[in-house]
Specification:
With 603 residues, this protein is α+β, with helices and mostly antiparallel strands. The protein contains nine helices and 28 strands. The longest helix has 23 residues, at 348-370. The two termini are 29 Å apart. The structure holds zinc ion. The site of zinc ion has 7 residues, from helix 4.
């Protein structure tokens, strides 16, 4: 997620542009954001594939660890030893795992009149832990919207009008009779007591009916202006990790969504005239009276979400085998989105072009740096939400506030005379929109492909995704024919930002902003969390890149993705790959890590 405070961003941008202008450089920008998520860390099958540099992915094969010795060289492939396999090459493929995945089969109905979404779910899964399960934990986030407070809203601002989700006819394929449904005080935590414990490795099918109320809020889950954002809406199996069933508290400022990669088969019924953006790909569409039934397949994803509206317009394109769909409320088409006293008129078609271009560039940049996007489709919804953007598997939502260009100050003509700057000196720029799009698409790798408990270890999710913004910036910079580094990256550089500065460290310690590998719940304020996880985390990762080298660090990230694709990762796993590559004797790297992380936590 990327929380936007647009006004602040614009001001920051202005200051930055002026500063850059003073340095005689280009325009560019940056942001601010937010986010969070709860839970603990999970176990997972490690994976290592015995050879080809170009292929990726987890299998169940054992993983020979190259060596415990410090590895001073940063290019494993340059000094091949029998125990070290080549690491994934740029633009490698990310293959779906061969292991059996959980499977959700869902018949869903969206009922706009009653503001409900519900249906029948048949969920087949197995106990992937080493402990017997006497009960199952489902997360039912929709029920939190029964009350503004539990949904994380200011009651003076929002009345979500939600309701407790009805969960009925819950059955275990192995026993007769329905299972009882119990809720914690935190109504999003639902327990099902099993009549027969589920042994490690044992499979079962859970069936249930549910009906959830869609809140009337302009947010990632809610209906506003005839656009239904239907996300985290069905009761989903919680993640079972070394701490048991994860059921940390909901975070409005970020995410607490933590689940297993599964295959989804969905029939989604909506009223005729409604278009949908979804996780997965549509394989069929049939009219049934005054309804339309979309048949969707979503392999290897952590969740299923959709947005639906009878007001949507759609733009589509294909980039390197990925079908990209962009949807938004058609009323935006009639807006002039750049005014000021400028001869330049910008409308929604320009924002659409900028968004599609950013999607194409993000897929290309991240595909090269991290491994190619492994899915057939990516949907982008522009709709009003209470954040800059929000990520879901195969689908992102960008708030409609991001479509408005920001003004980039062009000082050149004013510097030569006495003329005061005026509105005509501002050139409209979509940099905030495109950075937000890149950020949310970056989450397709860090959250989507490599999962994590983003409440308990949010840096694995948001800091790494914020770093992908820099990958995107470099990509588009090079695309413009530049051979140097983008000026905006300088502020993350060790040349300008000293993460070892004692005063700065002291400040961060006092604010509780470090270590970065702490949970969302440990931060005192959301603002500290945002500064630490999005900004300091982004800078920290960039400085790791500077220390190790650009290609070397991205090689580390590709290997991290390869080993942890379609599992839930942990901080320990990140550092395992990093140290394997960099060794333990890199003084600069060690100092940076010592300052920003607490590795005792992962021992
Ligand atoms: Zn994010």
């Amino acid at each position: 997620m990327k929380r936007g405070k647009r006004l602040l961003s614009v001001l920051l941008l202005f200051v930055m542009i002026v500063t850059m202008a003073a340095c005689g450089t280009e325009k560019d920008t940056k942001k601010n954001e937010t986010k969070a998520t709860p839970t603990a860390s999970a176990p997972t099958e490690e994976t290592k594939k015995p050879s080809e540099a170009v292929t990726v992915t987890p299998t169940n094969e054992a993983t020979p660890t190259p060596t415990d010795e410090p590895t001073p060289t940063l290019t494993p492939t340059s000094t091949p030893t029998p125990t070290v396999e080549p690491w994934p090459a740029k633009s490698c493929d990310i293959l779906f795992p061969e292991r059996e995945l959980y499977h959700y089969d869902m018949d869903l109905q969206l009922d706009p009149e009653n503001r409900t979404v519900g249906g029948h779910v048949v969920f087949t899964f197995y106990n992937d832990s080493e402990e017997s399960w006497n009960e199952l934990c489902l997360r039912d986030y929709s029920s939190l919207f029964i009350d503004a407070k539990t949904a994380g809203y200011d009651p003076k601002q929002y009345t979500p009008n939600g309701a407790l989700t009805e969960i009925l006819n819950v059955s275990d394929s192995r026993n007769e009779g329905a299972l009882d449904v119990e809720r914690d005080k935190d109504v999003s935590v639902v327990w099902l007591k099993l009549k027969t414990p589920l042994a490690p490795g044992e499979k079962m099918t859970l069936s249930y009916d549910f009906s959830a109320k869609i809140p009337t809020v302009s947010d990632r889950y809610g209906v506003y202006d005839n656009v239904y954002n239907v996300t985290n809406f069905y009761p989903i199996l919680a993640e079972y990790d070394k701490n048991g069933w994860s059921h940390e508290g909901f975070i409005n400022c970020g995410e607490c969504f933590y689940s297993e990669v599964s295959n989804y088969d969905v029939r989604l019924t909506v009223p005729k005239g409604f278009l949908v953006a979804t996780t997965g790909t549509e394989s069929d569409k049939k009219e049934d009276g005054d309804k339309v039934v979309y048949t969707l397949k979503a392999p290897c994803v952590r969740d299923f979400v959709f947005s639906a509206s009878d007001q949507f317009v759609v733009h589509e394109a294909d980039y390197d085998g990925v079908h990209v769909k962009l949807m938004y409320n058609k009323k935006l088409d009639s807006e002039i989105i750049w005014s000021v006293d400028s001869p330049i008129k910008i409308d929604m078609s320009d924002a659409v072009a900028a968004t599609m271009e950013a999607a194409k560039d993000s897929l290309a940049a991240f595909g090269e740096a991290l491994g190619r996007y492994p899915y057939d489709e990516l949907d982008i919804v522009i709709a009003k939400i209470d954040a800059g953007g929000m990520e879901y598997p195969n689908m992102i939502i960008i708030t409609d506030e991001e479509i408005y260009p920001i003004g980039v100050f062009d000082y050149s003509d004013d510097m030569q005379g006495d003329k005061e700057p005026d509105a005509t000196d501002f050139t409209p720029s979509f940099v905030q929109l495109t950075t937000c799009v890149a950020h949310e698409i970056g989450h397709q790798w860090f959250m989507g492909i490599v999962g994590s408990n983003s409440g308990m270890e949010p840096w694995l999710d948001e800091s790494i995704t914020s770093y992908t913004e820099l990958i995107y910036e470099e990509y588009i910079w090079a695309k413009r024919g530049k051979t140097d580094k983008p000026i905006s990256l300088l502020r993350h550089s060790r040349q300008t930002t000293d993460l070892c500065d004692v005063t700065q460290l002291k400040y961060m310690m006092q604010r509780g902003m470090i270590p970065l590998n702490q949970s969302y719940y440990e931060f005192k304020e959301d603002s500290d969390y945002i500064s630490a996880i999005y900004q300091e985390g982004q800078t920290t990762l960039y400085q790791m890149e500077e220390i190790l080298g650009h290609d070397e660090f991205q090689s580390v990230l590709r290997e991290y993705v390869r080993r942890n694709a379609f599992t839930n990762s942990t901080t320990a796993r990140f550092f395992e790959v990093l140290f394997e590559y960099a060794g333990h004797d890199n003084a600069d790297l060690n100092k940076l890590i010592d300052n920003m992380f607490d590795l005792d936590r992962i021992k």
